[in-house]
Amino acid sequence: xxxxxxxxxxxxxxxxxxxxxxxxxxxxxxxxxxxxxxxxxxxxxxxxxxxxxxxxxxxxxxxxxxxxxxxxxxxxxxxxxxxxxxxxxxxxxxxxxxxxxxxxxxxxxxxxxxxxxxxxxxxxxxxxxxxxxxxxxxxxxxxxxxxxxxxxxxxxxxxxxxxxxxxxxxxxxxxxxxxxxxxxxxxxxxxxxxxxxxxxxxxxxxxxxxxxxxxxxxxxxxxxxxxxxxxxxxxxxxxxxxxxxxxxxxxxxxxxxxxxxxxxxxxxxxxxxxxxxxxxxxxxxxxxxxxxxxxxxxxxxxxxxxxxxxxxxxxxxxxxxxxxxxxxxxxxxxxxxxxxxxxxxxxxxxxxxxxxxxxxxxxxxxxxxxxxxxxxxxxxxxxxxxxxxxxxxxxxxxxxxxxx
Length: 404
Description:
By secondary structure, this protein is mainly alpha-helical. It folds into four domains: about 140 residues, no CATH class; about 50 residues; about 50 residues, no CATH class; about 80 residues, DNA Binding (I), subunit A, CATH 1.10.30. The protein contains 15 helices and nine strands. The longest helix has about 30 residues. It is globular.
């Protein structure tokens, strides 16, 4: 690895402006091949670590979770890397082309995503030579761009699995994901079976058309988006949802008291923050506060009690809110499980004299709460920086494996 770092350091020192067009294009081509080879080596190493469950050393739930937490890898990239590595074990020609740098991670993903275990088993039963299939698809990938490779892969799939019943997601009746974008908006993606889709369509239709004012110029998509939010808001207000951690589910907005009380447009006023979706501007926070319960979370004598001492073992709602505000998610190294998935953990156990307080509390998801109580891991908060540190049973700290 030291030689690779040295080569990259030398490359960073090259004055690209001094290169001729021909030399520059040659360099781009060579770097593209090198990038493919590095991606293949990463995929291979990830597969080896996944197979050995090496991620358990750092207390991670899975290899995907470890990549997200320790290498700061995007969720979709972590999923693709792990899945591709697992399937390439059965596709030596594709794996070889990837390792040579002749095909990219995108090529490998196109092939491995389509060649599911179910499809490969069905092809084998039908007498299809899987080794030959692997060689043909790898050869196609060597000669074409990923989207062109995908056409050839689809042709193979059409012959083996014409109705798509052997797709990875064929047995998943309903799924739905939400993610926040870099622009602060929330993006949705999902699919439903026919009955589930009909239920949602009917509910949205009632909200879209039941009270539509004359002259409404919003598009169908806009009205459908508004109806979806109204459906969720109605469920929250209606009180039919189950309690979470002893509290009715609610939208949480955090904003500085000065910002809440400031005049509109006042300089130097910070915005607010939603519990999951993230930052919002001060006016949006004030609008939400118009019809909300306002809870002060401060440490002075006039604020909510943030320390109930030894008289109470479980954290009060006030203490939990304060800890959620401070921690934001599970504090175990590399974990970003949201507050609603977490317990309030006593850093110094209650049975060992630890008080039920903000200072002695921490958010831990169920897996990492178990790791701390039964797996020998410990956590500690630096009072100076406020940063949490996680330690293995042998006392060594779990640190990020990614570079600076």
